[in-house]
Design goal:
Layout: H1 3-8, H2 19-40, H3 44-55, H4 60-65, H5 74-90
Helix pairs in contact: 2-3, 2-5, 3-5
Length: about 100
Amino acid sequence: MTEQEARALGLGQINGGLVMSALYTQWYRREALEVLLADAGEDAEARAAVVQACRLHPDARWWLLHKRGWGVPAAAHWVSVLGEEVNRATGVRQPPAA
């Protein structure tokens, strides 16, 4: 996914103090979008919820704090970081914590 494609989904510029921070966070956001949109498939409601979850975090600091560590699969990471917000938006209930 390119930055232009992310912008076409309604995602604006990342807010951040340093240029490099903004560049890295745009990369993290695109990775999250690619992974979560692929998981959503053709479900329009789920796809809209993914875009909204990413839109809720326009700040570079949030993306830097939640970046994926080395050796962590992208799919597992972004589902764990943004999955609850996506599920909340689509009305999917999570089982209570044990």
